[in-house]
Amino acid sequence: MIYVVTFSKEVTQGGGKAVLDYLWSINCAGKGDKLTLLSLTGETNLSDIAKSHGFEVICLNLYFSPNFFKNLLQFLKLCIRDGVVFISNDERSTFFCSIGYILGCIHVVVLHRVLTDIPLWKNPLKNALFIKIENLVLRKFTTRVVAISEHMKNNIIKRNVNEKKIDIVYHKFNKDFKFIKQFAVIDFDRIKLLYVGRLQEEKGIQNLVKMFGTLPLQRNMSLTVIGDGSLRGELNNESNHNVSYLGHLKITDEIYQSYDVVVIPSKTEAFCFVALEAIQNGRFVIYRDIPALKEILVQYPYSVSFRNDEELKQLFFKLSKSINIFNREFDSGVTLNSLSRYSNKQQSINWNKVLNQC
Questions:
Q1: How far is Cα 18 from Cα 111, in angstroms, rounded to an integer?
Q2: What pTM, to 2 d.p., does this model score?
Q3: If both were cysteines, with which of 198, 260, 286, 291 could 229 make a disulfide (CB 3.0 to 4.6 Å apart)?
Q4: How far apart are CA 62 and CA 73, in angstroms?
């Protein structure tokens, strides 16, 4: 039996979207007859969508639930079955799955937001304790450890985890990369920039909005922010008439194709769906030079990176002066071949290899 275990609630979150990817890909790998989503937050938007696609779902609320002990007991019963594989996608479900490993089940860990470069908590003692527990789980209580990027694999190796038990399974894009739909053509009379993502510190959105407000009056440039998060109120105070907030929206190809340039200022990422979506729609991309983003975008010629806020400011200044900062030639063969690892087919192949080793 294969359980995809998660605390994610919404498909719109990166983790929730990844969970659906895992279900579809494992199903395509021929493992669907024994595949179940195990939601540890009870009935959620994610569990409802999984059911609507025909997947078996078990909901056990282990998150401040009045039935916590009853649900925990049911969870432990699942752990002691023969031949059980648990695939977890976040640090909380990993903790519970490690109990299952101790009780005898086979356990695969999928690390989604853990092992990135920014601490989960501001309290250094809490972070230090978490890292110690996490290291113990990765080294002792897992059968396979699955990284979602080369950058993440390197981070896991730094934790002294045996490299032989680490696999890379990239997230997949919803559609295979066979062509890029429509290439952007920048109209320098009115350059439209787009940010898509959570409004949180590690995403770099605060510095982006603040910098946009300090530039000389940008009559030919505007920034649209799609997303929500803890910084929403603060960002409203920082913004000017050239920055608009659309809140949380379901992102479509049509939305991407309404803008010229996608800006990804993240300070840390394990992976980035937005980068793939921008490429699929042929948008120009400005991104921070961090390993996970570079891994996706380095071969995409309509992209340019920056290392710090001053470099980003210079890129915006050049755009405002109608200087084309995207000057590499496009080679569709090279670009699309480099993106094939993010296809439906390749993710199914990768999951099949992982599960065959359990």
A1: 11
A2: 0.81
A3: 198
A4: 10
Q: Which residues of 7-65 form beta strands (DSSP E)?
A: 35-39, 56-59
For residues 148, 285, 176 and 27, what is the CA-based torsion angle, rounded to 10 degrees?
30
What tokens were used for 182? 């429509």
Type of residue found at 218: Q
| Look-up of token digits 């919803």 | 174
Q: Which residue is it, tokens 């479509």?
A: 252
Q: 335: how many CB neighbours lie within 10 A of its CB?
A: 16
284 φψ region: left (φ > 0), alpha (ψ -120 to 50), beta (else)? beta
Instruction: Please choose, from the candidates 185, 136, 176, the residue with its C-alpha nearest in 3D space to the C-alpha of residue 326.
Output: 185
Residue-wise pLDDT tens digits, 17-49: 778 888 888 888 787 677 899 988 888 888 888
Helix (H) or strand (E) holding 156: helix 150-158
Q: Is the pLDDT of residue 225 over 70?
A: yes
- At residue 262, the pLDDT reads 96
Give the Cα separation of 88 and 93 in Å (integer): 6
> For residue range 278-291, what is the model confidence (pLDDT) as tens digits?
988 888 999 999 99
Tell me the two tokens of residue 286: 């400005």
H/E element holding 85? strand 85-88
CB burial readout 101-110, b (16+ within 10 A) else e: beeebbbbbb
What is the H or E stretch that residue 7 is in? Answer: none
